[in-house]
Amino acid sequence: MFRYAPALAVASAIATIALGCGKTDPPAETDRPVTTTTAPERDIHSYARPDEVRVTHVALDLSADFDARVLSGTATLKLQRTPSANQVVLDTKGLDIQRISGGGSDLKFALGGEDKILGRPLTVDLPPNVSEITIAYRTSPEAGALQWLQPSQTAGGKRPYLYSQGQAIFTRTWIPTQDSPSVRQTYSARITVPRDLHAVMSAEQLTPKGTETATGRTFEFRLTQPVPPYLIAIGVGDLAYRQLGPRTGVYTEPAMLDAAANELVDLEKMVTAAESLLGPYRWGRFDVLVLPPSFPLGGMENPRLTFATPTIIAGDRSLVSLIAHELAHSWSGNLVTNGTWSGFWLNEGFTTYVENRLMEVLYGADRARMLQVLDRRSLDTEIKRLGPTNKDTILNQDLSGRDPDDAVTDIAYEKGATFLRTIEATVGRENFDGFLRGYFDRHAFQSITTAEFLEDLRQHLLKGDRQLEERLKVQEWLYRPGLPDNAVVPSSGVLAHVEQDMKLFVDGTPAAAIKNSSSWSTQEWQHFVGSLPDKLSPAQLADLDRTFRLSERRNAEVLFAWLRVAIRNRYQPAMPALERFLTTQGRRKFLRPLYEDLMKTDWGKEDARRIYARARPLYHAMSTNTLDPIISGAKSGS
What Å distances lie between residue 585 and 154, 240, 605, CA to CA? Predict the structure, then answer.
């Protein structure tokens, strides 16, 4: 049984915070965008030169060919150019560029040399007065952003499926544009798909049921708020929809709709709670697309339509903090975006902090504290894995010559959130909340860097107090490795009791004698299993598994924690569950540690390679890019 906050208390909190929400008055004069003296930071992961010519709008007209596994058609780009500019430089990777036109004529263009990470620059000559160009092109069947699924890889098993994942720099594999988080763009789209499929995008749906055409069914979309291109997203499949609130609902395959809708029933409450803390929700709708199991992330915060892994469908709403996380991105990430991928923590650290605040409002302080303890353990584990002096433990990352996905670790998420909690604990929640809301107003629909964040923090929260800045150790948090010694340490009375039970078990108490375990929440089970010592006897492992049926758990988080224990102890009865887990979902958060754990053992290497050979076609490119070096022995775990 999950520990929800009492229904009356939640209802009272929601009613209170709803007052005054939804207003869209302009920000006060003191909250207007700040004028920064910080020098612009170049995006090293883009060929674009937006200071000369900038893409402001993308209009797509594409058809999906599931047999060839390609999208083909045109992208029309609106350009903002300086008077002296005579070329626009775009990012591409694996695109077949067929023709480019503008001003009524074909335009000269050239593709530069291939870079393994960045792809190829596309340079287009611009005649005078041309501010719009149309690019005819085809994607590659191996486009990193696009995953084409066979019917057998879906819940329904009858129709194929397509989805995109643009973050960090995958959008250039399906759209020729300036693929930088600093170049915000509006977009529109006409997407033609087979007649028995439904298309959705991270945009307003202009034709919810589509329009019959000679070649299939065409869906039209538009997004009038400018976003970084990694947030342009598409999903195509056998999709059904259920409304959950005035501005919330869920899409998924029909076979999963009831379970998904039940799990996400609190979506509307989440939006209202977030508005109370962060200001008005500015994207219209907040719907969720629950994807097939191969999706590489827990969720992706695409505006208006968050993409989510089916591993959150636990049956008891215990894993919906992930949805709170993606909702928080509607402010931190979508509304205010990291200007370069070195500042990825600006997206994820803020979002992880806000996620926990939302869980506190919706489900009570006990649950929020439990999540903080679990998150801190994840952070400590990550720092230990990387090494406390490793530059990858710095918040503002040095990604020179590296794929920005290398920065996707718990450092950006959990160290970033711990930094913000430390500021809150030092200046007080009321003061920090005022800063937080103003921060999102001041930088709305802008992309900023860590240096610009620091300037804003000094101006609007620290207000020139150098002693306070030194007490917070701001420079150490942002630019040095490891964890500063002023980091707040979360605690949970509920989890303290769980630790006592764990110690009793380790000291010889049978698993069946552990009191109250039948009513433990997911977070209590995560803490119990995650706190177990590295080495357990075969008898202890069998007792745990027999008593609590851990190898049979449906809850992905609890099963994941148990499988790591099983690998450490070579507990053979759990190996079928491990193989099943690795071959039925593609979430990188689970895959990387499990494959690394296997590859660290003499006995597990062969199993890891055998399972990976079977499962790799299921995984998205984002996952295989991470896993290939691990399985080949090129990364830790060899």
Answer: 11, 21, 20
From the list 167, 175, 495, the residue with the least C-alpha distance to 337 is 167
User: Domain spanning 331-479: which superfamily?
Assistant: Neutral Protease Domain 2 (1.10.390.10)
CB 274 within 8 A of CB 220: no
**For this structure, is 326 an active site residue?**
yes
How many angstroms separate the CA atoms of 634 and 638, rounded?
A: 7
Compute mean pLDDT per 10 residues along the chain, 638 residues long, and list them: 31 32 33 43 95 98 98 98 97 98 97 97 97 98 94 90 96 98 98 98 97 94 98 98 97 96 94 94 97 87 96 85 93 97 97 95 94 96 95 96 88 98 98 97 97 98 96 98 98 96 96 92 95 96 97 94 97 97 93 96 96 92 91 65
- Please identify which of the residues 253, 263, 326, 452 carries the catalytic annotation: 326
- Enter the pTM of the model: 0.88
How far, in Å, CA of 27 to CA of 24, rounded?
9
Structure tokens at 261: 């809708």
For the chain, the domains span: 331-479, 493-632
Task: Tell me the fold of 493-632.
Answer: 1.25.40
Judge whether 355 counts as a catalytic residue: no
- Check 413, 439, 571, 612 and give the catalytic one: 413
Q: Hey, is 480 helix, strand or coil? A: coil
